[in-house]
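Dear H.,

Thanks for agreeing to be a second pair of eyes. The structure we're designing against is below in token form, covering all 313 positions.
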């Protein structure tokens, strides 16, 4: 029961980080946003380790925690930020968290010899269905601004041009930017498994978090030494929100690692998938003017949440 509570608290903090990131990414490049968020997250996770450092750390644990950092946050967080910027958190997060248990649950059975019943099978099916709906292109007619619908003119012409451009960018009817949450899901799922294996020897999760995040930060710090990445580094006027996003992320990771230390990854990872519920609530408060949510989006996200609940039974 404790691991479920920890996982739900972690889910809420991850969701808050994604929503706040959307505010901070206005005028800020994804690479710059990543460095600010992950850097702040590293500071947060270092505090408990400095206050109560682990007595011993095995080489095996170091290897697995370092490898997990290559996938999350190095790959997954950067991809997640790209998805939040391209799709908005209300769409990107349900897709990414819907795919996460679909990858983790079968892998946990194979790699960690974990078991699950039919309720988890039904839950994963619901999660995949909700993620599929969210990944599809919306009906463009529903997105026409009121002035374009009642009075055809410059506004309608500009909207039609934008729709045509966005439609050309989509692939086989999927939303443009769909690759970002997919890549994030793969990264997060792989990291979950690596962290669970690393914690298997009784390692302290307080040590795992700084090492994992530190590797993820180092990877992108090295990448910024090269011209193409460095030239895309840009901080906007709202970048201060990214500091708060990093604080939420660091707290979420500490809670996640503690949950993984106590429970099966096939239970914890799907519970983290309840993020869409928290994202919907927070987006309604903080992102009213930055992203649009329709009934299909809310319904699909709800299906994902129901699926994650079934998986946890």
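And this is the sequence the design step returned. I haven't edited it by hand at all.
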């Amino acid at each position: 029961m404790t691991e479920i509570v920890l996982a739900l608290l972690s889910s809420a903090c991850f969701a808050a980080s994604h929503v706040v990131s959307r505010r901070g990414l206005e005028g800020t490049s994804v690479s710059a946003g990543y460095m600010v968020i992950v850097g702040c997250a590293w500071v947060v996770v270092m505090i408990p380790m400095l206050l109560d450092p682990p007595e011993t750390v095995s080489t095996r644990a170091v290897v697995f925690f370092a490898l997990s950092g290559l996938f999350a946050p190095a790959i997954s967080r950067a991809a997640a930020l790209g998805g939040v910027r391209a799709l908005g958190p209300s769409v990107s997060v349900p897709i990414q968290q819907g795919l996460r248990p679909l990858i983790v649950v079968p892998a946990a059975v194979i790699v960690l010899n974990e078991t699950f019943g039919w309720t988890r099978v039904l839950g994963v099916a619901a999660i995949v269905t909700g993620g599929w709906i969210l990944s599809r292109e919306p009906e463009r007619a529903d997105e026409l601004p009121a002035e374009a619908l009642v009075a055809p003119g410059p506004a309608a012409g500009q909207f039609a041009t934008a729709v045509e451009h966005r439609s050309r960018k989509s692939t086989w009817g999927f939303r443009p930017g769909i690759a970002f949450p997919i890549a994030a899901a793969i990264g997060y799922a792989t990291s979950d498994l690596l962290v669970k294996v690393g914690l298997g020897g009784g390692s302290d999760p307080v040590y795992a978090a700084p090492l994992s995040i530190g590797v993820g930060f180092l990877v992108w710090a090295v990448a910024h030494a090269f011209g193409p990445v460095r030239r895309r580094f840009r901080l906007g006027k709202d970048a201060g929100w990214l500091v708060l996003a990093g604080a939420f992320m660091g707290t979420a990771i500490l809670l996640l690692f503690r949950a993984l230390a106590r429970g099966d990854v096939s239970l914890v990872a799907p519970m983290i998938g309840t993020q869409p519920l928290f994202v919907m609530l927070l987006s309604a408060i903080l992102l009213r003017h930055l992203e649009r949510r329709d009934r299909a989006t809310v319904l699909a996200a709800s299906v994902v949440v129901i699926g994650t609940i079934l998986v946890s039974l």
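Two observations from my side: The chain has a mean pLDDT of 80. The chain has 15 helices and no strands.

Warmly,
E.
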